[in-house]
Structure formats: structure tokens, C-alpha cells
Amino acid sequence: MSQTASTAVGETLEPADLIDFDSLLSREELALRTTVRTFVDEAIRPNIAGWFEAAHFPLEIVPEMGRLGLLGMHLHGYGCAGRTAVEYGIAGAELEAGDSGLRTFVSVQGSLAMSAIAKWGSEEQKSRWLPGMAKGELIGCFGLTEPTAGSDPSAMKTFARRDGEDWVLNGTKRWIGLANVADVAVIWAQTDGGIRGFVVPTGSSGFSAVPIEPKLSMRASIQCEIELTDVRLPAGALLPDAHGLRGPFSCLNEARYGIIWGAMGAARDSFEAALAYSKDRLQFDKPLAGYQLTQQKLVDMALEINKGFLLALHLGRLKDAGALQNHQISVGKLNNVREAIAIAREARTILGGNGITLEYSPLRHANNLESVRTYEGTDEVHTLILGQRLTGLPAFR
């Protein structure tokens, strides 16, 4: 693995980096980070406050994300970039430094909808949907969660029944990202033969998606409630290789892995905003950064950011080696999101009253991270996964 050139003592390109983290990354990984960071700086940062305030998801930047190879970037073939898990994580961190909602779009598109089709779909389904989704010409969504079945998807009530050669779907899905702008939905439903997945064109008769609003979090993103009313699908809509919850869970783990990196991107951006502000803001004729209490806050935040990125990189290297275990994803998701929220909130305190405005990012990140903390497994779910790993005893019921 190639390493970056050493910087002068006391200098770093990453304000929070106390351990020369970049020396652990290859030149290719650093180059990708620069590319995505430039995109975020040019396309997202100048606009994100307005998008967040207006609750606007910027569909206009989706084709550019496709051009950069960010959609389904860890998948191979069908126009996908075929990047490594670490590269996918690095891109996620940079996107979430811009906003969690924009990183969530990449996750819903690539880790959930595209992964479901790539892992479990027929050749016809892959050829029809994946190339357009990789380019950002088509948008996908992933319908698993229901109003009464969040942490326990086995309790889903959406049902698909056979009617001759066709399938007929009925049910409700809730908190489904992008559903009202999607071209295709991967819908998970109970059948007489257990839980199965279906590829559903959103123009199908009986499919409707309504945005959930108003929201205090993820305002630059879209989450919807889907109603499925006698949605009739041909036999070819069934994901042929997905049987039971193994299908959706394999996709959730892809998304959870991305969160491990993404949350640290939001934390890093919050820290950098607070650090810059503390150097410029004078109180009692002295910069805030010159006070001991401020420095303690900055040090504590930086330590957790360094540890969080080290954890993300370690898990990414394991994933690329084919050795990552499911409980290890829970370690990363639980720890890094929890710490990122604490960092964003602490960063806001350094900004004082100015920190509640959209001119500064920490409180926006903190609000968004409340959603990140909930989706793809709550703190409680990941705690119980790890508790079972440590004790050998399941405590879910």
C-alpha cells in the first residue's frame, strides 16, 4: 500500500487528524477522497442550507453522482464502478460531511435497491435496471419497513398472493427513502412460501408514495409512505434468489457499513466548523480557541473522530478481505453514530447562539444523525446483537 508524503511537523491537511491517518490510505483512496470532496465543496456546501430549510432534495445533482461513479459504486458490472469497500466508505464520509440526506440517497440507491437486484435478481432484472441506476438516470427505493414493523421486519403485513402466473401485492410501507421520485421499488412481502422480494415499477397501477412531512431531520432528503393496493406484477418481478429475511438483511448490512464511515464525515465537518469558529471568535479579548475549556472540547472531539475513522478503516479492510462479520458492522454503526451525535452537539456549544442558525453545520448534522441513529437498526437493536455475541443469549424477546 502506498503512503502519502510526510508533512512538516505540526501540519496536517485534516484538522482533526492527530495520528497521520492518511498514511494508512493508498494513493487511489486519497485521490477518490479528493474527487468526492471537491464535488461536495462545489455542488453541496453552497446550497445545503437552502435545501435543508426548504425541505428540498436536489434531484439535479443525481446525474453528476452517476458520472462520478458513486451510485452502486461497490458493485461490479452493469455500468457500476466496482470500487472497494474502503473506497465506498471514504466516499460516504465525504458525502455526509456535506449532508446526511445526500449520503443517504447514495445508500438507498446503491446499497439497498441496486444491491438487492445485483445480489438476488435475475439476469433480466439486472440488465433492465442496474445500468440506468448506475448512471443516475433511474432512481430506486427499498420497501422493507412498515408502520408496525420496524425493528422486527418478520412481522411485516404486506402480502403477495399468487393469481395464476401473476403476483398481487397489498400493504403499506413507511419511511421509504426516495419512493415518490423512484422509478423502481424493491418491495419485500410475506407470501405463502415466506418472505420474498419483488421488483416493482413505481408506475404500476395501485402503487402510490406520499412524502412524510414536516420533518425536523433529513430535510434535504425524502422519506415516504407507500401504499400497495392490488398491485399486479408478472412472475418475472420476483427476485428469484431471495428467500426469507436473508435477502433484505444482506442489503441492510451494506447500508449499515456505509453509515460507519458516513457518520464520521458528519462528525468531522462539525468539528472543523467549531475549530474554525473558535479561532476567529473573540471573547474577553481572546479567541475562544485559547481557553482551556474550549481546547478540552476540541481534543475530546478529535480523539473520537480519529478512533471512529480507524474503526471504519479496519472494518473496511475486513470487508474487502471477505472477513467482515455481521456483529462487527453493529460495533461500527452503534459506536460511530452515537459518537457523531455527541460531537455535533458539542461542536454546537462552541458556536454559541450562532450555532442554531443554518449558517453553521453542527446542529443540522446533529438533527440528521438522529435519523441515522434510528434507521438500519436502532441503538437498542445493535446493542442486543452485540449482547448476544458476548453472552450467547438472545434477548430480543
Explained architecture:
With 397 residues, the chain is an alpha+beta fold. The chain has three domains: 21-135, Acyl-CoA dehydrogenase/oxidase, N-terminal domain (Butyryl-Coa Dehydrogenase, subunit A, domain 1, Orthogonal Bundle); 140-237, Butyryl-CoA Dehydrogenase, subunit A, domain 2, CATH 2.40.110.10; 246-391, Up-down Bundle (Butyryl-CoA Dehydrogenase, subunit A, domain 3). Helices cover 49% and strands 15% of the residues. It has helices spanning 27-44, 48-54, 62-67, 85-98, 100-120, 123-135, 246-280, 292-320, 326-351, 362-374, 379-391, and strands at 76-77, 80-81, 140-143, 159-163, 166-177, 184-191, 194-201, 207-211, 223-233, 282-283, 286-287. The strands form four sheets. Strands 4-5-9-8 form a four-stranded antiparallel beta sheet, with helices on one face. The chain has a three-stranded mixed beta sheet with strand order 3-6-7. Strands 1-2 form a two-stranded antiparallel sheet. Mean pLDDT is 96; it is low at 1-12.
List the helices and strands and how they pair.
Blueprint: H1 27-44, H2 48-54, H3 62-67, E1 76-77, E2 80-81, H4 85-98, H5 100-120, H6 123-135, E3 140-143, E4 159-163, E5 166-177, E6 184-191, E7 194-201, E8 207-211, E9 223-233, H7 246-280, E10 282-283, E11 286-287, H8 292-320, H9 326-351, H10 362-374, H11 379-391
Parallel strand pairs: 3-6
Antiparallel strand pairs: 1-2, 4-5, 5-9, 6-7, 8-9, 10-11
Helix pairs in contact: 1-4, 4-5, 4-7, 5-6, 5-7, 7-8, 7-9, 7-10, 8-9, 9-10, 9-11
